[in-house]
Structures are given as structure tokens and as C-alpha cells.
Design goal:
heterodimer, A: alpha/beta, 58% helix, 11% strand, globular, B: five-stranded mixed sheet, 10 helices, 13 strands, binds iron/sulfur cluster
Chain lengths: 376, 337
């Protein structure tokens, strides 16, 4: 059996580590490209959202490389993601592929369900083995998150455009190669070092933009047209509301774990959206509020076209924006999204934020002049 | 150095290419409106040649701004000091003309946009994405179909007393519905006015959806020439709609203003290649990269047979090459011109 899984940003590094740790043969699908997209679009329902199409493309390309089993996350609730695994299975069946499909559903409070699913799939591996493999994978995710966060910080003031790109690749490869916990520690330290060696310039006080929206669209650079890099190269400090570890924590280990941030985020969303609408609708609202509180200059929502939870969030964003004085830009993307059009919108949004900030500063300085005038 | 200082703004869109010269007082010295005709470099060169005939002796260009969908290319070709997106450029130009403006409606050849301004800064904007029913090209095509010169279109619309309701949800609907109404025997006046109303409805429902339109409103872009469209907007919004004198070249004006702003912020010598560049040999070519299955179309600009710029790849494979080439000779060439 040769196992594969869909891409979502750098998730492959950890997925590969876990599966290999369990002595499975792994086929990492090629990084998504236009070909992947074309394959996926061709074989998926037209109105399915972008993530499904790209996953199908991933599977077909992995199949070409000899994969015959798929690990895929499932879902619950009002978002279509929940039955994607089933839809994908049917699509592959219709195309005549006999893939074995292992769906990791978020256990509704029962960790044992998850373990059983994994066990059924790994044969006679002991619980302890599975736990260790999972933990190692999770640590790798943590390391990747640290790399990604640092990447955005470095990119804002890279001296030569594009200078950060190679460093990230190198750092990711280091994490990928780490074979033990000790290795991983060194790899992370070394990776961060590589990033810090990117020639930098003085950037002053960059604009700060928070990215919110649907997780797949945020994590997979191919579908979001590399939005983090594009913004970074425009001199904007980017932070996104979800990193891989967050996704795994909230998605695969679901609701029995409550985190401070999560609680804070729900609290922040409450005045606008008090109940779960599936996907990341509540997160989009809650985190937009939190970004505003932290003094971010703007928020960009990224979502697949037709995504219901994000449409709900989109309809509430104008009120959030008004109440908290934070401008937002919504990007709903599908396979027809054009790079040039997106670029124009991003540039215009960044200009908007910059001019707004300038104006505020000017106002603040005249205000302090007035105050000074009064005290005289 | 002779001549008075001036700022050049170039706006290269898919349909039209506009060039503007502004003086220190931000007055328009020259304004040109040309068809891009699928050859942006040629259009820019022709524009510069014409400007040079009109003004080269009297002005000295001290700053250049480029905007429009072809802004990157234009920036390299003319030697721009600043390259900006068309939303910012349009807003800057409208604000200079109408300092209190709160809403900008802009309809060009391929794109239409709405820009919301409060207290002198852009706070929100939107562009049309998929539908072409709210753009100048669509109007041009329908005018041709009705046998009406586009210049007369608006005046004709004003004569109508019983506008025909035309379905304007999307370009295809609108077109077939219009043909249908024509066959039913409605007058051309009534159809033209109906079309203007359909276009405006389409714009308000697609592009301006959810945006709070407050007066004063400025209407710019090539389509603002059409008095029928202006009237249809005024009816639909129940407010006055102002059309600036240079409605068709506001993007270029904005680019020139941005250039002025930029040169004041960071004083330096302009990168402008001079009006003579209309005679240098620029060639753009493209090739499909086979480095990975993305098969990006990579664009190359040659300046007198030397590679001057390159872009279009999704990865940085070609950026790197661009840099080494530029250092190895292109760059001197770029600055020496
Ligand atoms: S430019 Fe880069 S991303 Fe594009 S096809 Fe070539 S190698 Fe692939």
C-alpha cells in the first residue's frame, strides 16, 4: 500500500513524517500547479469549491506516482467539507481508480474514534507507536509554523525582492529531513538562522494586515495566488489567523480542547455571529475584531467562491469594519481568478491603508498642536 | 535645461492608452487619448511622439507616473518614477478636481469601478469581476449594432420619453434582449435610453453592491462622455452626478499627480527616458516556461536587443535571471537612455 494525501501548504511535511513513522510507504503528491488544477477542475462538479477540485487533482497526480490509498480529513456540520471525502471517493470510483480511502473524522468528543480509525489503517501498530508518530508530526507542524511566522517578518524588509523565497525552501527542507525529536530541534534552529541571514534593510514601520477566511485557501499558496508573498513584497507585515497547528488542534482533535485564543475569538465574534455556521465563518469575524483591537491596519478575507460560511461572514464584515474602524477586503477566488486583477486590488487596498494612516497621523499632529495652543 | 517643469502621467488600459502632461500647478498642459489596439508599447511610443511635437520644446519632464492594467510594462518603457494601480490613480485625480468628492463611479473600456471616499481618503472600492455588461466596450458594440455612432448615443438617449426596459443582468442577456426589443419595433431612442438604464442597473447591482453612495458623486472614464449614462445615473441615484472636464484621462492625471507627490517626497532625478524613446526599438516577446507544469507565460522586454525586464512567472526562477541580466548591461543601458 502506498499512501497519499492532499496538499495544504506545508502540511505534507508532517503528514509524511507521521505516515513514514508508522512504516507506511508514502507518495507526496507534486506541489499543486496549473496541471493539478486543470485535472481537478475537469473531474469535479463545477459548483464544488476550489479546495475539492485541487484535492482531486492531487489524488490523480499522486496516482500517476503509484499511490493507491488516501488519507483525508473529514468534517461535520453545515459546511460541504464534511462530505468531500465521500464525493472524492465517488469521483475517483467513476474514473476507475480503486483507491482505498481513510477518512479522519473529527471525533465528536471521543479521541478513541480517531485512534480507531488510524489503527484500522495502520494494521497492528500499538497505541503507543501511533501516539508517538502523531506527536512527532505535530512537533514538525509546530516547527513549520515557527518558520512561516518568521518568514513573513523577514520578508517585509528583505533587501532584494524575492530574497526570502530560497531561504524558506531551505528551512522547510531541513524540517522535512529531521528524523528524530533532537534532529528537529536542531533543524528548527538552523532553519530560523537561514531565514535571519537573508539580507535585510530598514523597513521602518510596516503596515499590518491580518488574513482571515477559509483555512485551505489561506494555507495553500497555489490557490491564494501567493498572497502572503505578494503582500510581503509590497512591504506589508502579514499575519494569518490560522496556522497548521491551529487547524489540526481545532479540526482533528475538535471540541474537547478549549484554548484561550479560541475562547477570546468566539467572545469577539459573539455580538455579530453567536452560533456556529460551519467552516471558519465565526473565526473570520472573531479574528477580524481581534486584529482591529491589536491595532492592525486592515483585514483581508480569503475564501473559495460559493463558500457558505464565508459568505455569512462577508455579509457581517461591513458592520465589524464600521464598529472597529478597520478596513477589509474580501477575495472570493475560484479557478478563474486572475493574477493581474488580484494584484490591482491588493495594491489599491494597501494604498488605501497607507493613505488612511498618513491622514490619521496628520490629524493627530494638528490635534496635538491645538492642544498645545490651548495650554498656552 | 530649458522649458518649464512638467509631470507626465501614462495610463495604459486594454482598450485605451492615455497620456497627460501637468505643470507645477497641476494644470493640464496636454492630454492624449489613444487606442491601445493590443499593442501597448506602440501606443505609448506614438503618444510620446505626439506629445513631443506639441510640447517637447516648452516643457522639461521632471517626474513620470504609470498606471492601468499595463502599468508594469509602461513603467519600463517610459522610465516611470512611480507605478501605481488604477484605483489609487483615479481617486487621486478625482480628489484634485473635486476636493469634497465622496463617491467615484468609473467606467472604462474593460473595467468599471466604484471608489468610496470619506474625508479625503479612499475607504472602500470595488471592481467588476466577471460581467462586461457594465463597460464601455459593451456600449460600443451595442451602438454599432443599432447603427448609432457612439458619440451620438447619449444625445439620442436623452430624446427618449418611453425608455424600453432591457434585461441587464449580464452582457449576453442584455444583448439578446436588446435585439428582441429592436425586432418588436421600439424606436432607437427608446432602446438607447433603455440600454443606459440597464448598464447603470448592472453597475449598481454588481460593482456597487453594498456600497454606500453619498454625494458629491464624480463620474469618470471614457463612458462619462455619454450624457445618456450620466442622466441614467442621476435618475437611479436621485442625486447630481459630476463629470470632470478631463473625464477620459483621469487615470493618467492621477498618475502624473502621484509622480509629483513622489518627487516631492523623495527628490531625485527622474527616470524618464525622454521623448526620443518613441524612436528606440522596444520589443516584447513571451515564452512558455517549461520548468514545471505551471507553464507560466513569461514576458520579456528588449530594448535595442538587450533584455531590459522580465516577469510573469509564478516562481522566482526568471526574476533571478532578470536581475543578473540587468546588472550585466541592461541597467546601465536603462539609465543612460
Ligand atoms: S516560471 Fe516557475 S512556476 Fe512558472 S512554469 Fe516556470 S518554473 Fe514553473
Amino acid at each position: 500500500m502506498k499512501v497519499t494525501f492532499p496538499h495544504m501548504g506545508t502540511l505534507w511535511v508532517a503528514a509524511k513524517a507521521i505516515l513514514e513513522d508508522l512504516d507506511l510507504e508514502v507518495v507526496v503528491p507534486p506541489r499543486p500547479t496549473t496541471r493539478t488544477m486543470n485535472l481537478g477542475v475537469k473531474h469535479s462538479p463545477e459548483f464544488a469549491c476550489l479546495p475539492l477540485k485541487l484535492c482531486v487533482g492531487n489524488y490523480l497526480e499522486a496516482f500517476e506516482r503509484g499511490a493507491d490509498a488516501i488519507v483525508m480529513a473529514g468534517g461535520i456540520g453545515p459546511c460541504r467539507f464534511g462530505y468531500y471525502a465521500q464525493v472524492e471517493r465517488e469521483i475517483l470510483n467513476d474514473l476507475g481508480y480503486s483507491y482505498r480511502m481513510i477518512v479522519l473524522e473529527p471525533p465528536k468528543g471521543h479521541l478513541s474514534d480517531l485512534v480507531n480509525e488510524i489503527k484500522g489503517f495502520t494494521g497492528q501498530r500499538s497505541l503507543r507507536r501511533i501516539y508517538q508518530a502523531a506527536l512527532f508530526g505535530y512537533r514538525k507542524l509546530g516547527a513549520l509554523d515557527a518558520i512561516e511566522r518568521r518568514t513573513n517578518q523577514v520578508r517585509v524588509d528583505e533587501a532584494a525582492r524575492g530574497g526570502t523565497g530560497h531561504a524558506v525552501q531551505k528551512a522547510t527542507a531541513l524540517i522535512d529531513r529531521a528524523a528524530s525529536m533532537d534532529d528537529l530541534k536542531t533543524a528548527l534552529a538552523r532553519g530560523l538562522e537561514v531565514l535571519d541571514q537573508v539580507p535585510r534593510k530598514e523597513s521602518g514601520d510596516p503596515l499590518k494586515i491580518g488574513l482571515v477566511g477559509e483555512v485551505y485557501m489561506l494555507l495553500e499558496p497555489y490557490v491564494n495566488l501567493d498572497i502572503e508573498r505578494q503582500l510581503g513584497e509590497m512591504g506589508v507585515l502579514v499575519e494569518r489567523h490560522v496556522y497548521l497547528t491551529d487547524w489540526v488542534r481545532s479540526h482533528l482533535t475538535a471540541d474537547f480542547l478549549r484554548f484561550d485564543h479560541e475562547r477570546e475569538m468566539r467572545q469577539a465574534a459573539k455580538p455579530y455571529l453567536g452560533h456556529w455556521v460551519g467552516g471558519h465563518g465565526v473565526e473570520t469575524i472573531g479574528n477580524s475584531v481581534l486584529y482591529a483591537r491589536r491595532g492592525f491596519d486592515g483585514v483581508i478575507q480569503v475564501a473559495p467562491l460559493t463558500c457558505m460560511p464565508e459568505i455569512v461572514a462577508r455579509s457581517l464584515l461591513p458592520v465589524v469594519s464600521q464598529d472597529h474602524g478597520i478596513p477589509f477586503l474580501s477575495l472570493f477566488l475560484d479557478e478563474h481568478a486572475g493574477e493581474a486583477g488580484l494584484r490591482t486590488r491588493l495594491e489599491a487596498f494597501v494604498d488605501l491603508l497607507e493613505r488612511r494612516r498618513e491622514q490619521r497621523r496628520r490629524r493627530a499632529s494638528t490635534l496635538s498642536l491645538e492642544v498645545a495652543g490651548h495650554s498656552r | 535645461m530649458r522649458g518649464k517643469p512638467a509631470y507626465l502621467g501614462v495610463d495604459v488600459g486594454s482598450v485605451s492608452t492615455n497620456l497627460v502632461l501637468l505643470d507645477e500647478d497641476e494644470k493640464v498642459l496636454e492630454a492624449l487619448y489613444l487606442k491601445t489596439g493590443g499593442q501597448p508599447v506602440k501606443a505609448v511610443q506614438e503618444g510620446l511622439a505626439r506629445l513631443s511635437e506639441e510640447a517637447a520644446g516648452e516643457v522639461r519632464v521632471v517626474g513620470v507616473g504609470a498606471t492601468g492594467s499595463g502599468r508594469q510594462l509602461t513603467g519600463v518603457v517610459v522610465g516611470a518614477d512611480i507605478v501605481k494601480n488604477e484605483i489609487t490613480a483615479h481617486a487621486v485625480a478625482a480628489l484634485q478636481r473635486f476636493p469634497g468628492v465622496r463617491t467615484i463611479l468609473e467606467i472604462g473600456g474593460q473595467d468599471s469601478k466604484i471608489i468610496i471616499i470619506r474625508q479625503g481618503v479612499v475607504v472602500d472600492f470595488a471592481m467588476n469581476t466577471v460581467c462586461a455588461a457594465g463597460t464601455g466596450s459593451f456600449l460600443d458594440r451595442q451602438a454599432a449594432r443599432l447603427g448609432v455612432a457612439i458619440e451620438d448615443f447619449g444625445a439620442l438617449a436623452l430624446q427618449s420619453e418611453h425608455p424600453v426596459r432591457i434585461a441587464g443582468r449580464c452582457a449576453v442577456f442584455a444583448e439578446s434582449d436588446m435585439v428582441h426589443k429592436q425586432q418588436m419595433g421600439h424606436t432607437t431612442e427608446d432602446i438607447t435610453r433603455g440600454l443606459c438604464q440597464a448598464l447603470v442597473r448592472n453597475f449598481l447591482n454588481n460593482v456597487a453592491k453594498g456600497k454606500e453612495i453619498q454625494p458629491p458623486v464624480a463620474f469618470q472614464g471614457g463612458v462619462a462622455a455619454n450624457v445618456g449614462m450620466r442622466q441614467a445615473f442621476e435618475e437611479a441615484l436621485a442625486m447630481e452626478v459630476n463629470v470632470p472636464t478631463y473625464f477620459g484621462v483621469m487615470g493618467a492625471i492621477g498618475a502624473a499627480l502621484l509622480a509629483k507627490e513622489e518627487m516631492a517626497r523623495r527628490p531625485r532625478q527622474t527616470c524618464f527616458r525622454g521623448f526620443e524613446m518613441s524612436r528606440t526599438d522596444f520589443r516584447t516577446t513571451s515564452f512558455e516556461c517549461d520548468g514545471c507544469p505551471n507553464h507560466c507565460e513569461v514576458i520579456e522586454i528588449y530594448l535595442n536587443a538587450i533584455l531590459a525586464a522580465r516577469w510573469g512567472g509564478r516562481c522566482d526562477r526568471w526574476d533571478q535571471l532578470e536581475r543578473s541580466h540587468l546588472v550585466a548591461g541592461g541597467k546601465q543601458l536603462l539609465t543612460s537612455l
